[in-house]
């Protein structure tokens, strides 16, 4: 675990939060990196994953919960960037549901390009 600056009003930057999460993926570190409004959901889902792991004698649900929340903590480290990404995703979803072109590349095109590169590389 790394030492954090002990300044009463020090607010960690997104880069500091992400660096701490690269070093420590524990539930405690993840919870500490989450915004306040996500804490209840984290606590609820983490406790449910613990119960499920204990009942089923399988740690998979717990690992999946921690991994999912780790990703969210990384994404939410920068609230402004997260808000922009969410707005963009909502707009793409709205356009897709309306049948409007959304741009981008189809999975078929991605697969074809990957296959072409592998053939050219002799794989």
Helices and strands in order:
Blueprint: H1 14-23, H2 27-33, H3 39-56, H4 60-76, H5 79-97, H6 107-120
Mean pLDDT equals 89
Give the low-confidence spans: none
Q: What portion of the residues fall into strands of 2 or more residues?
A: under 5%
Largest sheet report: none
Task: Indicate the overall shape.
Answer: extended
Specify the structural class: mainly alpha
Counting structural domains, the number is: 1
State the share of residues found in helices, binned by percent.
Answer: 55-70%
Order of helices and strands: HHHHHH
Strand elements, count: 0
Radius of gyration: 20 Å
Number of helices: 6
The end-to-end span amounts to 43 Å
Please, could you describe this protein's structure?
Residues 13-24 have a biased composition (Basic and acidic residues). Pfam families: DUF6247 (PF19760). Residues 1-24 are annotated as: Disordered. InterPro entries: DUF6247 (IPR046214). Helix content is 69%, strand content 0%. It has 6 helices and no strands. The chain has helices spanning 14-23, 27-33, 39-56, 60-76, 79-97, 107-120. α1 packs antiparallel against α4, α2 (27-33) runs parallel beside α4 (60-76) and α3 (39-56) runs antiparallel to α4 (60-76). The mean pLDDT is 89.
